[in-house]
Amino acid sequence: MTDILTSLFFILLTAVFFKFSLYVNKKFKITFLNPILLSSVLIIIVLKLFNLTYSDYNKGGSVIVSAMGPIVTVLAIPIYKNRDALIKNFIPIIGGITASIIATFVSVTLLCRLFGINETVFLSLLCKSITTPMAVESAKMLGGNESIAALAVIITGLIGAAFAPLVIKVGKIKNNIAKGIGIGSSSHALGTAKAVEMEGETGAASGLAMGLTGLMTIIAVIIIA
Known about the structure:
The chain is 84% helix and 0% strand. The protein has 225 residues and is an all-alpha fold. It has two domains: 2-70, no CATH class; 82-224, no CATH class. The model has no long low-confidence stretch (mean pLDDT 85).
């Protein structure tokens, strides 16, 4: 009974903090006040103040994570609605995703070698641009650290969601498909959530790119491993 009450408490706490973070983000419109980042910080503060552990929080947090899998299927709706445009641009989409994966692998490799990052961390960072479950499994196959991989995915997503509008503006990117492919292939679900806010076609392209990037990255990892 205690575990059930604990789970319900942390589910409710997460929902309240996220709703509050959304309000703050919309009110102040500051890039770094990302709802996911802000709500995470608030939860950490509560855990520290009341001397609670991550295991305590995860009794409710794991329920939320489990629910996220089915919820992601909602992304199929904008993909279906914009299927004609996506099919028409399928070859450029595959080309963009391939370029993104290569850029990720090359940039991570060069930066890790430049700063003398050890092999375990390097292998954990290779799959930072795909969703957490895929990144964690990829890290396992490569011999990396699961926790580092998960953290890298979160940071990548937050940065992508925060800076995508600025990059699009500075780069003067007008094509909605191009916007979506860039966001989805580099910053997975968090970036896709931002893409959906921008425009339906952009969100659809980002959702498709997120799925294909994950699939193609896993195939690359299997070949490498």
